[in-house]
C-alpha cells in the first residue's frame, strides 16, 4: 500500500467510538478532556474493598518450605491492580523499553515472527492462507476419492490456491479428505488487557491481511470482516463470566481511564491507519479491522458484554458457506439430541457459523494470579464451541535473569511498585496527610525469585529509613487509618504494620510447558498450537474448550494443587458426571463422525459393521445391570442376543474364532433400524441414571465394580473380551480404529479445531533444532540404561471377595489381568527414550533389499499408500483424513508387533519384555498432562524428551500404546474373574502380546500403572507403537 494511501486513510479516521456505561451513551468522546471528565469511581469501589480485605489479613502465608522462605512470610496483600493507574502504565511502558525486561520483547518477537500464522489459526484457517503464493512444482495431492486407502495423482497445483488449501486442506493444510472445509469469513478478536497495544498492533496487521484480496485483484479477501476489542479485567471479576463472547459487532476496549483509552485508540488509528479503522461503517469495504472502545469499571464492562450476546448490531450474513466445529444436532436422532447439553451460546451461534471469536490474553498476565486463581479465571471464560483463546505465558527458569528483569539497575521497576503503593493509599484514604499511612515514603521495594514454586515475588517492606529519622519514635508500628465509606462492609478502623513486615503486592508465576498443560487441563482447555520466542523462554498458547475432553488426573499434582484433587478416586466407581461425559464422547463418535453410509461397511474386515457397536455398548451395560439387580432386560430384550458379544478372529486364519460370540444378522435389512437402537440406548442410559439416584452414597462394593466394568468397557479398547469381544472389550477406542480405516469418508470431527499440520510440523522442527543445540545433536536417539532389579506390578483387587467386603471409596478397581500386586525380576537392559517414528520406519523400509511384495507386507495399516506404493506419496490416517507424510514423520509409527519386531532386530535390538517396559513406565509414566491421551489430539503427535526442570515431565509416547515381546500367560497368583469369566483366560493362546500405556483415543482413567492390554501380535489396526530395547 502506498504512503499516500496510508495517509489518506489516516485522515479519514473518525474519533474512536467509546461506549460509556455510566450514562449509557454510545457517542464518540470528542476529546480527551471530555473523556477525563467522566466520573470513574463507583459509589462503593470494589477495589478499595479488596484492598481493605488484603490489609486485614491474618493468615500467615509462607511461599515455600525452607527457612529462607519463612523470611518472606506475609499476612497482608495489596492488589496488583493499583500498579496500573495512568501514571503506573506510563512507568510500565518505560520498563518494557529496558534491556533487562525480557518478557515484553520475547512476546513481541513471537508476534512479529509468527503473527500471520497466529492470525490464521485464531480463526481456524490454515497457516498457508497468508503464505507467499508460490508454485510448488511436482507437488501432487491425493484425489478425494472417499476411500480410506486409495489415492491417485491430481493435477499439479499452486500452493496458494484457496480451492485446495482453504477448502480441503490438501496442499496447504497437509490434509487429504473427501469432505469440503469452508473457511471462516467473519472474525472477532477480544483482548483481555489493552495497554499501549505496541505488541498487539503486529497481530492486527496480520489480521488485516486476511481481509485483502489475493493476487492484487478485486476479489474478496479470505475473510470479509474482523472486529477487535480489548478488555482489561481485574481480579475481583472472577464471579463474572464472559458468555460466548460473540456479543456485539463493535470492538471494545475496557479501561478505567477514558482519556487514556481515547489516546490509545487515536494513536493506533493514526499509526496503523492502513490496517485498522475506528469507523463502524466502512471497515468492510475498506478491508480494515474495526476497533472501538468501552469505558466502565471492570464489573460493569463484563456484565454489559455478557448481557448483549449478539443483541447489538449483528453482523450481516455472509453469502459464502462456512462451518464452525460444534456437535451437530441435525446428525443425531431426536432422542440423543434432546438429552445432550444444550449450550445456549452455541445454539445461538449455529445460525452464524461463519463467525469465530478468539480471545487474546497477552503479556503473561496470567502470572499475576495464583495457581488457584488462574485455574478459576480460565474456567470462568465460557468459550463457545469453535472459538479460541491465545494466552501468553512466561516460562523462563533463569533465576538471575528474572531477578534483573523485575529489579532493573535504573530503578524503574522500583518506581513502578512504589507508585502503586501511592495509588493504593489514595484509594484507601484520599484526604490523609502526605507521608502518613499507605504511601511510598514509608516503604521500600523488595523482590525475590523463588525457584521452587516458580514465581517472582514482589513485596513492600515497611522500614525505618534514614531520610525519615524524624519518625524514629513513632514508626516502630506503622498505623494505616481506614476511614468509613457509605456502603462499605468495613467500619472505620486502623491497620497496624510492624517494622519490617512484608506485604505482598505482586506475583509473577512462571510456567514450564508441563505446568502450562496442567493449567489447561484443570481449566478444561485443549491446546491447539504453541509458538515460542527464539530463546524458548516465552510462549503463546492457542487453546479451546472442546466438546469431548478427558482431563489429566495428575494435573493438580503438577501445579501443587493436590488438595483440589482430594476426595475423588479416579479409579473407583465412576460418577454420573463421568458417565454423561462418556456418552457425549460416544455420540460424537458414533453419531456425528461416522456417516450413515458407513454403518454397514467393514473398514476392518475382522470386525463387525459399525452399527453393531452402536447397540453393543448399551446391551452390555444392560445385561450386567440386569444380572446384578436380578431384573428384566430393557426392551427390546432380544437386542441382548444380537449385541452382547462381538468377534475376535484369528489374524492368521479369520475363519477361526476361539471364543463364544453373538450371532448377528447377515443382511442389512435384518439389522434393527438405527433409530430403534438409539432409542434403546436412551432407555438404558436412563436406567443407569436411576441407579445413581437410588444408590449414590450407599454403594456396595460389587455394584461399584459392575459400574466400573461397564464404564471402562465403553470408554477404551483392548484385545480382550469382557464377555463381549476381544478387540472390542472397550469400544470407544475400538470404534476409532474402525474410523481410521475409512478416514476420508468420515464427517470431520466437530467441537474441536481443525489442525494445521504444516505449521505444527514447523514448530516441531524448531523444537528439535533447539534440543540439538541445548542437549546435543543425538538427543532424540538417546537410550536409558536400567540395572537388574525387582519391581512391583499390578494391584490387589480380587472380585471374589466383593460380597464379603465393605465398600471403600478409596479402593482401586481393575480387571483380572491386573490382580494381584506382585514382584517380578528385571534383568539389566537399555531402551530408547522415544518410540520409533514414521520417518525412521519409512527410511528403514525403503532401505531394505527386498521385492515389492515383501515390502508391502511391512507397510503399516496406519499409512495411506497411493498407486505408486511406498515409493510415491504417503500419508498417515487420522480422524481428519490422511495427513501427508512430511508432516507426520516425527509422529510415532503405529504398526503390528511383528512389523516393529523386524525393525528392532535390524536396528540391533528387540521389543522390550513386559517387566522391562513396566519398569520404564514407572520412571516415565504414560499418564501426565503433557501426554497425548484422552483426545488431547485426534492424531499422534511427536513424542517428547523428558525434562529436568523444577516440574519435570516424563518422556512421552506421542499418543500410542507400546508393544512388548511378552505373550499373555497366567502368572503366579492369577485367578480369573468370577464376575466376568474368560476376560483374560480366553486369550492365553500364545498369540496375544501384552501392551502397556495408552493412546490418544484412550480415556486417561485406564492409563493407570497396573493396567494391562493385549492384542494379537499380527493385528495391524490398533494404535500401538514400540520402543526398541537392547541387551545390556
Automatic annotation (TrEMBL):
<dbReference type="InterPro" id="IPR051128">
    <property type="entry name" value="EgtD_Methyltrsf_superfamily"/>
</dbReference>
<feature type="region of interest" description="Disordered">
    <location>
        <begin position="1"/>
        <end position="43"/>
    </location>
</feature>
<feature type="domain" description="Histidine-specific methyltransferase SAM-dependent">
    <location>
        <begin position="75"/>
        <end position="122"/>
    </location>
</feature>
<feature type="region of interest" description="Disordered">
    <location>
        <begin position="313"/>
        <end position="351"/>
    </location>
</feature>
<dbReference type="InterPro" id="IPR029063">
    <property type="entry name" value="SAM-dependent_MTases_sf"/>
</dbReference>
<dbReference type="InterPro" id="IPR042095">
    <property type="entry name" value="SUMF_sf"/>
</dbReference>
<feature type="domain" description="Histidine-specific methyltransferase SAM-dependent">
    <location>
        <begin position="353"/>
        <end position="544"/>
    </location>
</feature>
<feature type="domain" description="Sulfatase-modifying factor enzyme-like">
    <location>
        <begin position="813"/>
        <end position="917"/>
    </location>
</feature>
<protein>
    <submittedName>
        <fullName>SPOSA6832_04595-mRNA-1:cds</fullName>
    </submittedName>
</protein>
<keyword id="KW-0808">Transferase</keyword>
<dbReference type="GO" id="GO:0008168">
    <property type="term" value="F:methyltransferase activity"/>
</dbReference>
<dbReference type="InterPro" id="IPR016187">
    <property type="entry name" value="CTDL_fold"/>
</dbReference>
<dbReference type="Pfam" id="PF10017">
    <property type="entry name" value="Methyltransf_33"/>
</dbReference>
<dbReference type="InterPro" id="IPR005532">
    <property type="entry name" value="SUMF_dom"/>
</dbReference>
<feature type="compositionally biased region" description="Polar residues">
    <location>
        <begin position="1"/>
        <end position="12"/>
    </location>
</feature>
<feature type="domain" description="Sulfatase-modifying factor enzyme-like">
    <location>
        <begin position="958"/>
        <end position="1029"/>
    </location>
</feature>
<dbReference type="GO" id="GO:0032259">
    <property type="term" value="P:methylation"/>
</dbReference>
<dbReference type="InterPro" id="IPR019257">
    <property type="entry name" value="MeTrfase_dom"/>
</dbReference>
<keyword id="KW-0489">Methyltransferase</keyword>
<dbReference type="Pfam" id="PF03781">
    <property type="entry name" value="FGE-sulfatase"/>
</dbReference>
<feature type="compositionally biased region" description="Low complexity">
    <location>
        <begin position="24"/>
        <end position="33"/>
    </location>
</feature>
